[in-house]
Amino acid sequence: MRILMAASEAYPFFKTGGLADVVSSLSRALNELGHEVWLFVPYYRKLYEAKADRLPRLEQSGLTLEIPMSSRLVKAELLWTRLPQSDVTVMMIDQPEYYGRNSLYQEEGGDYEDNCARFCFFNRAVMEIARKLILRPDIIHVNDWQTGLIPALLDIEYRQHPAFRETGSVMTIHNLAFQGRFWHWDMLQTGLDWKYFNWEQMESFGQLNLLKTGIVFANKITTVSPTYAREIQTEKFGHGLEGVLKNRSGDLLGILNGIDERDWNPAIDPSLVSNYDLQTVMPGKAANKAELQSRLGLREDPSALLFGMVSRITDQKGFDLITARADEFLKENIQMIFLGQGDPFFENKLRDLQNQYPDRVSVTIGFDEELAHLIEAGSDAYFMPSKFEPCGLNQMYSLKYGTLPIVHQVGGLADSVRDASPANIEAGTATGFVMPEYTEKSLCEQVERAVKLYKDRAMWYRLVQTAMTRPFSWKRSAEKYLSVYRAAREPFIS
């Protein structure tokens, strides 16, 4: 197949979260299965130039575009490169007015006011490039609201063009909470007729909704875990779109993300001070733990139960529960390391904890890829008590690195972590600690269980070994996506 993958970010070029990892890893896995993948992203010039010495060289394509946006024409150029360790072609759309900024989506805590125009332009540019280059994609795979207009453009404007007559579309929802909702006059930015601004297609609660647009027009819809696919059809997790998703339930499938072992593998990870595998995990983790404690100014105590957390700092990720009970946790021989950024309220709560317990709590506001890997390797346990979690990647990274996670029983967390119940321990399937409810009490109970189990090092080691052998191959996930692709284009194959 020839697959056109469109996303607003892709690792290692531009990343704010798991979307970037998933898009790149899936593209690479599809390519390794023998398929031709073209990955489209905006060219965020300042962000690329800041780390250009660590990225593949960009080439000029010579292709320029003029896209009508509301009442004016907006010009862009096309650059290209290869996704590292693959034959995936990466197409970057260079439009300095829209993408030559300090961030992808927001600055100083607020979204860019023209985000609708920025990504409507990107969507139109993707379709125009595919038309001009006569790519004839078998599938266009779009990701989240930033690319939600593409399935509508395909059906409404491009379907009759010879290059798109046999093209199917697939929409992946990575996080339903982010929907690309804009005031109704932004419908002008889409370039589509106002007749599509209705409750069955592009309108939602009086607003233009780009995620809903993608859900309605895509031939097939996926999300990033089987449990989340069921959850988002309920009022509790549907964020107002549960009715739309129920209506498309026959075309909706949950596929659990994988992890790319070229980037996340303790045996070869260059960010670690000591690499390790199943046979050397205990001394390997001990060396990385000592390095973490030393580097971050924590008391160098091998007996302390060290919790790590790399995350957006928001209440969705459980920081309301953690900060409310941290003093109670720290009555035990526990240390905690946090890396991330987000809500200033919780950032300040974490700073207060660090000030109160400087040798037991470390807080790094921002993002550091090398430190993220070291935290996964050097921590004994991992906090991931998310209120909701479509898939989650860090719990999978943690399992791969032998770091036992505490998770809430939702979404991909429920699909990937097995609770350390007596029955699961006996069966050899236990890999972590699962909160049945999103409450402070439930989190405290899991921390207590972790503290108790950590004192039995032989049993803890048994769970670590089980965790490290859990299969999270992208090859398996990619094969499931290929089945969805075939079903999505079936109605158009003559």
Secondary structure elements and their pairing?
Elements: E1 2-6, H1 18-32, E2 36-42, H2 45-50, E3 59-69, E4 72-82, E5 89-94, H3 96-99, E6 106-107, E7 110-111, H4 115-132, E8 139-143, H5 149-158, E9 168-173, E10 181-182, H6 187-190, E11 203-204, E12 207-209, H7 210-217, E13 220-223, H8 226-231, H9 242-247, E14 252-254, H10 281-295, E15 305-310, H11 319-329, E16 334-340, H12 344-356, E17 361-365, H13 369-378, E18 381-384, H14 394-400, E19 404-408, H15 411-416, H16 422-427, E20 433-435, H17 440-454, H18 457-468, H19 474-489
Parallel strand pairs: 1-2, 1-8, 2-5, 8-9, 9-13, 13-14, 15-16, 15-18, 16-17, 18-19, 19-20
Antiparallel strand pairs: 3-4, 4-5, 6-7, 10-12, 11-12
Please, could you describe this protein's structure?
It is a single chain. This protein has 494 residues and is α/β, with parallel strands linked by helices. It is 38% helix and 20% strand. It contains 19 helices and 20 strands. The longest helix is centred in the first third of the chain and has 18 residues, at 115-132. The two termini are 16 Å apart.
Task: Specify Rg, calculated over alpha carbons.
Answer: 23 Å
Mean pLDDT across the residues is 96
Work out the helicity level: 25-40%
Using DSSP, what is the number of strands? 20
Distance between the termini: 16 Å
CATH superfamily of the largest domain: Glycogen Phosphorylase B
Global morphology: globular
**How many separate domains?**
2
Structural class: alpha/beta
Strand content: 15-25%
Within the CATH hierarchy, at the fold level, what is the topology of the largest domain? Answer: Rossmann fold
Main β-sheet description: 9 strands, mixed
CATH class category label of the largest domain:
Alpha Beta
Q: Strand order, biggest sheet?
A: 3-4-5-2-1-8-9-13-14
Number of helices: 19
